[in-house]
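Q: Sequence in, structure out?
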Amino acid sequence: MAPRILIDGFNLALEHGTGVSTYARNLSYRLGAMGAEVDVLYGRHVNPDWPDLLREVAFFDDPAIERMTFRRRLRRFRRTVFAGMRERAAAIPVTGQVVTDVYTYRMPHFDRLWNIEDLFNRAHNRFKMRAQLLPVAVGRKPTVAHWTYPLALRIPGVPNIYTMHDLVPLRLPFTTLDHKRRYYRLCKMLVDQADHIVTVSEASRSDIINLLGAHPDRVTNTYQAVELPPHIATKPEDQARDEVRGAFGLEWGGYHLFFGAIEPKKNLARLIEAHLVSGVQTPLVILGKQAWKSEEELRLLKQQRVQERLVLLDYAPFRLLVSLIRGAKSVLFPSLYEGFGLPVLEAMSLGTPVLTSNNSSLPEVVGDAAVKVNPYDVRAMVEGIRALENDPELRDHLSHVGRQRAALFSGAAYERRLTELYARLGVTLGDEARGWEDHLAAPADAAQEYS
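A: Exactly. Output:
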């Protein structure tokens, strides 16, 4: 019988994707490809007592128009009063009667969808008040519950494993809005009570061991898979050129690109300063949703004289984002800290040269297939940007070795790591695990590091 793996839909429900939602989605597809049955648990506002059709309609409805009705308040009150009782999930039927094509790129692979109304908020509030994990039940017990984020949830009677992507709130507390003491208590509790902890880089694994006191044998690094849909990533270049020119007014190879959330961790203020100081006339395109402290990060944009050299884009659909990455002269991603650094590998997989940071997980992920700089050193960034602007041989080299490096994080390699992870819990999944750490050595002819 195929093992049943339950994952959460905490980040999958977000309208705009994050690195964690990409992780959860890729995990679901890889588990399905390896023969597992995949259950996904959401926390949408769906009344479990509604008929099948209404539950399906409510699940796929726009969360922006959901209303806090009297009945919903009453259900929340009852669940607060009886908070010690196990929460039981309701099945979400997917019959095809509701048209879901718009969610094609957001939905995970699944065999069954489950929902517990307002689950993640209530788990957070329970932990805040009682410092306890919320127990849940989901139909027939899964073989393993794999929570893709540090959530205050557990399924009693089965192995519960938790993915901790990084410990940024503890390493760089000034870059996040998390309640740091509560975050620390939750992570410490999960390390102590979980059956296993999963992470996505050796840098993050080291942090979990050193900061939270986890036993090394109970923390596994699986890295992540870097996979872009072939029909988008390999579309004819003339089509991609038309998309970049028509949608954004940009010429192919005529801009440098940053993409990601605009927040302190991403180091945009220093990147913008470095680009201006470099004197490079090729514009820097900044694509990302403005988040906490974004005004401080973008303060140099207010100067009239620099606006031709800096282009701010709020949003691009995924199919256009991929073309935008392909058409960039380089991707600049000098983040202060990353648990994995998916954007740099996505760019490298598309053959776009990359400048990134020489700290956290990024050096182990990119190897010597990118220009690496100290993210706090604006002058080092200036020299790196000038090199990418003025040295076509360097760009050609990085394009070649970048593709090689990104290929080491293929879906097949990720499957082998997952097989090894679940084997530690006594779960047979896919083929026998084969180690692949040795293949993470850097490609030959390394790019230089600016410091």
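Residues 230-409 form a domain with the Rossmann fold fold (CATH 3.40.50.2000).
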